[in-house]
Model the fold of this input.
Amino acid sequence: MRGTKLLAALLAFAAPTCAAIAGAAIADPAGFGKTFEEIEKLAIKEGRVRMVSNLFPEEVPQVLKAFYGKYPTIKVEFTRGSGVGYSERILSEALAGLVEYDLIDIANEFYSKYLKAQVLAGPFEWRKLFPGITEVQVSSDRHFIGIAYSLRAIAYNPTLVAAEHVPRDWSDCLNPYWKGKLVVDTRPNTFATLAMVWGEAKTLDYVTKLRDNQPVWKRGQPESLVQIAAGEYPMFCGISYHTVNGALRRDPKANLALSWPREVPVSVSTTMTVVKGAKNSNAALLLAGWLASPAGQKGYEQIGRASPFAAGSELWKQLQKAGAKTVLRGLGESDPEQAITKKILSLWGFAK
Amino acid sequence: MSTAVLTQIRTGTLWSQIKSNLVLICATGFLLLLILVPLVRLIVNSFQLGHPAMPEGWTLQNYLSAYSLPAFYRALGTTIVLSVVGTVITLSIAILFAWMIERTDMPLRNLAWTLILIPMAVPGVLFALGWALLLSPKTGAINLALRALLEPIGIQVSQGPLNIYSLGGLIFLDGLRGVTTIFLMVVGAFRMMDPSLEEAARVSKASAASSFFQVTLPVLLPAVLTAAMYEFVSSMESFEAPLAVGLPAGIFVLSTLIYFTVRLQAPVDYGLGAVFGVTYMIMLLFLLWGYRRAVRHSERYTTVTGKGYRPRVISLGRWRYVALTLFVVYFFLTVLAPFTILLWTSLLPSYRPPSWAALSLLSLNNFGEVFSRPHFFGVVWNTLILMTLAATATMLLAFFVSWIVVRTKIRGRALLDGLMFLPHSIPGIVIALAMIMAYLTAPLSYLRIYGTLWIVAMGLIVSYIAFGTRLMNSSIGQIHQELEEAAYVCGATSMRTLLAITLPLLLPAFAAGWIWVSVHALRAFSIPLMLSSKKNEVFSVLMWQYWSDGDVSLAATLGVLLMMALVPLTLVMRRFIVRVSGQQS
Done:
């Protein structure tokens, strides 16, 4: 009898405690505004946002100038970080309960991991809250918002590559003339995106031939581009336009040139998402939505990272002039990309 | 529980013993926790799928994948080749210099003794980055100079002739890197060996060379073998040069394969990384076992005798200047050349090979830029805290553990000693991986230290505790027990005796160890890199970030600043080392 009473007492104590703990886990402690106006009001109250993104530090003032004009009291604390390493690091920190950033930019390979780990706030009605955001910018789960675009091309050193050898298309990367000389990124996003139009068989055949051309495998595009500009290697097959543009902006005299192939892979990059438990959650949501909106995209246009589909933009003109066709991978297409990525890596002989 | 222990509990003596040794027990327990839990976690994770904090079930697939991966065997082969050849080169140079500096009449020997320590002030990553700029096949400054020299004699090459992005380049870097440490390991034996053996050779009309090869070297063989084993283990662990120079060339060693698997390549695979780590650790444990066996009976080969005279200085004749030239070349290769190219790069907007045209671009802008970056001073602060924390904690823990090992009769103390030496055989990259896995999962995840400076400090403590305990073991052994016994007779507790008698007597050794750990913590790379977060970034990690972001000039600027901080620290360390060795001899 005494045992039953004790058990009942324990249950009586444990049930509300468990419910409270479960409730606390579901509700967001900071609380998001329900309308744009509420979010804006709360964001101004928060007064700052800690953002990590793949922007180069010198690009930040251009991109944020208009945001500061509209919201002068919200301070953006920027940290440069991009790619696999950073995405993995932030995920591990979040799992350890360390929330150092409010708004993060993660690599597409990590979408499902972040969702599974339940370390993200949201989902959000991005397009309702921030009019002007296009469908292609929003992931199907509505946690991620595409802020900028990444276009892949071929970079070369014009002093090392004679006019007759300037690469014009992806097939030029298979030319035995470049055997053992051209640089290829071990992260095969370029070719995984091209697989959307090439199909799996052609893509795998292409990457096999590329491997057989004995490229110099590299990880870390900015670092590799320095070596191209210095004259160490003549060409990089599948580099981000943004990286080349950034290098030329920092050193306009750098020996670098870019060639647009006939099919240009375009992906929605700089995928921002708000971290669960962020100190400045509303400011983070406001900044992400604003950057993705037409007003924010103007800043990205200045650094050559806005949509290449906006007729009349500098990037659009370049692609038109080169007669290049774009291959767009939206945010909702990361799963098929991951599958082909694994196959390419396996063919190239890298771990998984 | 034995009757004796039960009796002790009943009478309260066990509790009072525990109470009086609480700090010692806690220190030992803390170290065991620090070393063993992450290693166990690493092994557990090697049988799991998914992220360590979100395991997706048990599997043997990680082992099957790892051992069927050609890249693994290539990396293993490269690691072994690099270690064997690198060790031979390092040993040859270090032994030659030890002999030249200690036993011959080479000019400027005292200065050489000081200068040979300076390479220690050049962090491995900086050394590799410097040489990447010097020996890049097309744009490397030395290659450009060599091509300019070859052209007038009709030899025209479009690149090279040297290429740092090759296995040869890695061996070159590895061969030069360890010379200072091995020199320090063997120089004492050269200084204190029994000269009568060489005298006998001389009397028998042996030349200096044959006396060296037939008498000196065989006599010093145990010390040389010990140093060789140490260097081989160090080479097996090397990470910085393989990362900076090997990875861009597609040359993997085991340490970079682990880094690539858990940090660079998508999808990241912790299970596979753990298998590589466990395999790597087991291989090095075997080597450690060999090392322990090699030094077990070292007293059999005693060459230092009680005779009160120093070995005779060997006259090199006209070769003495050749010896000096060799030393100058070594110093140029290890310090001057990398420092000069880094200084040159730090003054340019972006890297350009040295030329008259580039002279017009030189400025101090990068130094201004580095200091104006918002997180720079935070990183400096973190680095200073890490240095102090790691050095103090390592030496204090080493002191307590060594005291238990040397002074007490506690059962299992030999095991404890062996356990403290164990991390010596665990590469920094594996320690870091094990710490990630341990502190992301229960129970250690509750400490919430992942991503903080604490976890980096703990990683460094694990990494350096073997050195700390070796130093403290030998130093405590030098102090006669009767000094401590006198304190006990006066009623002092073990703790009070330790702090009031033993520690002050050990202060020079403690200080030497403290400086050694702090210098190494300042230049540490693999552990801070793997464990880095926004909160705990340190100097070497920031430098690498700049480099991998393509900001080569900013990376070089940080490198120059780092070397300017490390060189004086290293020279201070030398003063303490001299003092300690003087005291011990």
User: Anything to note?
Assistant: Chain A has 13 helices and ten strands.
